[in-house]
Design goal:
The record marks 112 as: Important for substrate specificity. By secondary structure, this protein is an alpha/beta fold. The chain folds into 2 domains: 2-146 and 287-330, Rossmann fold (3-Layer(aba) Sandwich), CATH 3.40.50; 148-283, Phosphofructokinase domain (Rossmann fold), CATH 3.40.50. Helices cover 41% and strands 16% of the residues. It has 13 helices and 11 strands. The strands form 2 sheets. It has a 7-stranded mixed beta sheet with strand order 3-2-1-4-5-10-11, with helices on both faces. It has a 4-stranded parallel beta sheet with strand order 7-8-6-9, sandwiched between helices. The longest helix is centred in the middle third of the chain and has 22 residues, at 147-168. The chain starts with a strand and ends in a 7-residue tail after the last helix. The model has no long low-confidence stretch (mean pLDDT 97). Residues 10, 110, 133-135, 177-179, 230, 283 line the site of 6-O-phosphono-beta-D-fructofuranose.
Length: 356
Amino acid sequence: MRVGMLTSGGDCQSLNATMRGVAKTLYNQRKDVEIIGFIEGYRGLIYEDYRIMKSKDFSGILTNGGTILGTSRQPFKLMRVPDENGLDKVEAMKNTYKKLKLDCLVVLGGNGSQKTTNLLRQEGLNVIGLPKTIDNDLWGTDVTFGFQSAINLATQTIDCIHTTAASHGRVFIVEIMGHKVGWLTLHAGIAGGADIILVPEIPYDINKVAAAVNKRAKEGKRFSIIAVAEGAISKEQAALSKKEYKKYIATRQYPSISYEIGAKISELTGQEVRVAVPGHMQRGGSPCPYDRVLSTRLGAAAGKMILDGEFGYLVGMKNNHIAKIPLADVAGKLKMIQPDDEMVQEAKLMGISFGD
Ligand code: F6P
């Protein structure tokens, strides 16, 4: 049996742990398993860049962040566009699969990557998706691997910022990863005790954010912590057309939304403001124990599905049980925060402002 495997899109802490789960299950259950690891995601599948893996390649990697196969971003919208040499990428991927006589392809990837997995399914390949992303925005699964590890790191950042903010009596903006969705910001913001949480799904009014900061100052609180998602957006920006918003991003005088918010809060409240951006640190380092368990479970479940010949699914979790979600349902949908989400409402009850 020959199984192809690749890791695609932005990395996260628990990719190796997941691949190990799949591989150990397969090697343990069958003697004739050969795993082909494609280098740097779909690029390896397109250009026949691969490694024949050995069982020992998957040993000792449970705790290692990153990916032993490397990864790259191959945007879905360009998959049907020939490369600079006129190569049809979809045909090339199918040819590699056939040439290597693969029985299936396992894709560890987020939203965009699983769209391509679904495309390959539609093209007749046996595929299985595994839900990778620190953003936790894959539709159909309650959790994705990488999310908890990233929450831990983002929370640690907020914890560190808390002590210095309190000492100096400053307003601190902590920018958390997430361009389209705010799950990471919401969870880390709550775990880190942020006073204000700004996420892309709930456009903010800067005057309300400033009012929340002023209210704290009036109550004698010497500092405020604002957790801001990379993709946070004001009500005015949300009202722009796609074209106008693109123009605003291209001409924005600040490196990111956090700095823009910081400048406005300083102007509106007269308080001293600082911005902290942990950036890619949130995707790095060792997976947390929760992710190691989740990855191992998902990997083992995917291994079993390969052995049983069940393809075309994303292997996810629903109510703490393994769930097989048809890739056709997952592709192209984002799991986003709803303004009436329980967690948002609970946070609001406690006085956390979302600036809306
Ligand atoms: O999708 C994961 C993610 O980490 C997002 O949260 C973030 O906005 C983006 O990737 C950053 O991408 P890159 O690593 O390409 O800068």
